[in-house]
Amino acid sequence: MAALLNALVAIAAVTAALTATSLDRRAAVLLGATGSTVGVFLAWVIAPAAWAGAPFLPWLAAVLGTAVLVAGWSAVRLYDGVFAPPPEPPDDTGAVATARW
């Protein structure tokens, strides 16, 4: 039970730290909570026996999970409009359509 409580505190602390230092608070809460939860869960799945002997493991997993998710989020945001077609040029036929002869 203490290991679970330690993991939950690690998730909350990493999320709060990311939120406090971010300009976009809603995205920081989403990325912090998701990244730290996934990181802690994957660490628990990979090494369940290490939870009892290493109280720092959930903290390390929460930080690494959040860092990986923030890096992925940044890469997606960076390449978001790279492959989009250029915008259409403005159409100047409006002046011709309103002219009266």
Furnish the topology, listing elements before pairings.
Layout: H1 2-20, H2 25-46, H3 50-53, H4 57-78, H5 94-98
Helix pairs in contact: 1-2, 1-4, 2-4
Question: How would you describe this protein?
Answer:
The protein is mainly alpha-helical and 101 residues long. 71% of the residues lie in helices and 0% in strands. It has five helices and no strands. It has helices at residues 2-20, 25-46, 50-53, 57-78, 94-98. It is elongated and about 90 Å long. The protein starts with a helix and ends with a helix.
- Mean pLDDT across the residues is 87
Order of helices and strands: HHHHH
Gap between N and C termini: 86 Å
Q: Largest sheet, if any?
A: none
Task: Based on the model shown, name its key terms.
elongated, 101 residues, single chain, mainly alpha
Give a brief outline of the structure.
The chain is an all-alpha fold.
